[in-house]
Specification:
Length: 98
């Protein structure tokens, strides 16, 4: 399938992406991600490997669109942890006293 990433056309196939990602250790996922085989990779890492371009040259959306069209499962940004409620003055004093 022909995809345009960072203004450059690429002929990508699902098997080609699987082969390219074979042996690549996934980085920690902090944003959008894509599942390739049984591993989940950050989208930018996959884009860098398959295009051999710097991560700053393409957007996450371009790679997500291409991976979705190839049949890979893409995940959005993981939900942020709920902010901790501030302690009341009574709870703070209790915590300080043990």
């Amino acid at each position: 399938m022909r995809c345009v990433i960072a203004r450059f056309p690429f002929d990508l196939t699902k098997s080609g992406v699987l082969e390219s990602m074979k042996g690549i250790k996934p980085e920690p996922v902090l944003g959008a991600s894509v599942t390739v085989g049984r591993r989940t990779y950050p989208v930018k890492q996959v884009g860098q490997v398959i295009t051999r371009q710097d991560r700053r040259d393409f957007s996450t959306g371009e790679v997500v669109r291409a991976m979705t069209q190839l049949g890979f499962t893409c995940h959005g940004i993981p939900p942020a942890a709920a902010p901790a409620r501030p302690l009341t003055p009574l709870q703070q004093a209790s915590a300080l006293l043990g």
